[in-house]
Design brief:
Number of strands: 14
Helix content: 10-25%
Mean pLDDT: 92
Strand order of the largest sheet: 7-6-13-5-14
CATH class of the largest domain: Mainly Beta
CATH topology of the largest domain: Cyclophilin
Strand content: 25-35%
Number of domains: 2
Oligomer: single chain
Distance between the termini: 26 Å
Order of helices and strands: EEHEEHEHHEEEEEEEEHE
Shape: globular
């Protein structure tokens, strides 16, 4: 049985220059929808309401929204208004962007694919098929800039983290852990199960915004072979192809 959301959202101080509005203590698409609705309301209020003028950043997560503000902001006044807006933030179908991203599942890029398949009593090909048939919801960006925590992984593939994390995970690795799917934007340590790799960079400092994905987006994987992977990687590197090429559709 799922944990119910709060009757009234909670307002929590985060240091001396941020508020967190928390809707629940569990992960759920409806809760995340309320988070995104509040983000839209706060973003709109920043345009015309002086109380919100001091906001410098808005950070959505699985079940809460954090609002960072300048030191000259009236924190109590802002907090009261945030709670009022939170009461208006109703769950609704998410209208995030849809991405169709290429993914290569060759053994070179997927050191844990066979192990995950064996764990669940299936084949690597079936694991890949399941991944490519799933619409993953980007709940939040965290751990490192551009790293998407994506929900929607079918229960048949829920897999614990590695017992011993790798010291070096290649950049753009597609990985799963627990109920989540993610992509490592850069080479880094990591303990998730590596199932493939995308040729698309998830974080490019020169782009605006630099992170490809955002909370509320949806990601669909499209399997490509090693040759297609190399060609897409080359085209992106030399500017013949832009990351926005993989953006498809508008609303969920």
């Amino acid at each position: 049985m799922s944990t119910p959301s709060y009757t009234t959202p909670r307002l929590l101080p985060l240091g001396d220059s941020a508020w967190t509005v928390e809707f629940a203590q569990h992960i759920d698409p409806a809760i995340h929808s309320r988070v995104m609705a509040l983000e839209a309301l706060v973003d709109e209020a920043r345009r015309h309401d002086p109380v919100f003028a001091g906001i410098v950043d808005i950070v959505p997560t699985f079940r809460s929204l954090t609002v960072h503000y300048r030191p000259d902001t009236d924190p109590l006044g802002l907090g009261e208004r945030l709670l009022a807006l939170a009461g208006q933030a109703e769950a609704s179908p998410l209208g995030g962007r849809h991405w169709l991203l290429p993914a290569c599942f060759d053994p070179e890029f997927a050191p844990d694919l066979a192990v995950v398949a064996e764990r669940h009593g299936t084949s690597p090909a079936d694991v890949v098929q399941t991944l490519c048939q799933t619409a993953f919801r980007v709940y939040m960006i965290g751990f490192m800039p551009g790293f998407p925590y994506m929900g929607g992984l079918p229960a048949s593939l829920h897999t614990p983290r590695l017992s011993s994390p790798r010291k070096c995970v290649p950049a753009r690795s597609i990985a799963i852990a627990g109920e989540m799917c993610a992509v490592y934007p850069w080479q880094s340590p990591g303990g998730w199960n590596l199932l493939g790799q995308t040729p698309v960079d998830l974080f490019v400092a020169q782009d605006n915004p630099p992170a490809l994905l955002a909370s509320g987006d949806f990601v669909h994987w499209q399997a490509v072979d090693r040759g297609e992977y190399a060609e897409i990687e080359r085209a992106l590197a030399c500017g013949d192809l832009h990351r926005q090429h993989f953006l498809h559709g508008g609303t969920a």
